[in-house]
Amino acid sequence: MSPKVKDKDTGLTDVLEAIESRIIFGELKPGDELTEDGLIETTGAKRHVVRAALDQMIRSGLVTKQRGHSARVRRFTTIEVNELYHMRAVLHLEAVRIMPLPAVAADVLHLREILSDYEAAVEAGAAALQIHRLNDRFHRAIWALSRNSLLEEMIDALNIRSAAIRSHGITHADWLSQARIEHREMIDVIERGDRDRLARLLVDHMHPTRRIWEDMHGMKGGDQQR
């Protein structure tokens, strides 16, 4: 159980982070109910703040709500996961296709600095949420190389929607080790301009955490019901 936030002035960002963390790291399971009263109790926030947080998560796709019913953590069917990952791959490949390569030295240095922060957090045993945020920051810096802000927004929107799936590798030591190797190679191929290798790396990089999530939710060879 997450500790209750005691600050009576808990803001929207605090509430979003608290709820998102519980969703993406599996404390709240697909289909779990999210009531305003329950979230007020666990976060210590005021009702209008909790309501705004739920509205924002519904828009992002992490949470769903049907008219007349409480909000619930999004459930994914096998078809939905396939569609989500298909579109993520399409957008990733388009970003690679249009980004100027090899990247300029300043962009490569920026990526290395972010990766250094990410690796330091992993080695220090930082909280999973911090590692997750640094991982997202690294990948956003890669998409920024496309120089297409709308494409970046579309990739980010699907990353948010898939956060509950792709975040599970954060708590697996073997995947964290592999991710660090792949992140380093991404920078190397960006620096030397190997577009084909970068495209393969970025698409393949998505799937190990997906498989971890599917195994956890019994979705291999079947469909998770709504």
Secondary structure elements and pairings:
Elements: H1 12-24, E1 33-34, H2 36-43, H3 47-60, E2 63-64, E3 71-73, H4 78-98, H5 105-123, H6 128-144, H7 149-161, H8 163-166, H9 173-192, H10 195-204, H11 207-216
Antiparallel strand pairs: 1-3, 2-3
Helix pairs in contact: 1-3, 2-3, 4-7, 4-10, 5-6, 5-9, 9-10
Strand fraction band? Answer: under 5%
How far the N terminus sits from the C terminus, by CA atoms, comes to: 25 Å
Tell me the structural class.
Answer: mainly alpha
Radius of gyration: 18 Å
Physical arrangement of strands within the biggest beta sheet: 1-3-2
Mean pLDDT metric:
88
Shape: globular
Order of helices and strands: HEHHEEHHHHHHHH
At a glance:
This protein has 226 residues and is mainly alpha-helical.
Supply the key terms:
226 residues, mainly alpha, 11 helices, 3 strands, 3% strand, globular, disordered C terminus
Describe this structure in words.
The protein is mostly helical and 226 residues long. 66% of the residues lie in helices and 3% in strands. It contains 11 helices and 3 strands, in the order αβααββαααααααα. It has helices at residues 12-24, 36-43, 47-60, 78-98, 105-123, 128-144, 149-161, 163-166, 173-192, 195-204, 207-216, and strands at 33-34, 63-64, 71-73. It has a 3-stranded antiparallel beta sheet with strand order 1-3-2. Strand 2 and strand 3 form a beta hairpin. Helix 9 runs antiparallel to helix 10 (195-204). It is globular, with a radius of gyration of 18 Å. Mean pLDDT is 88; it is low at 1-8 and 221-226.
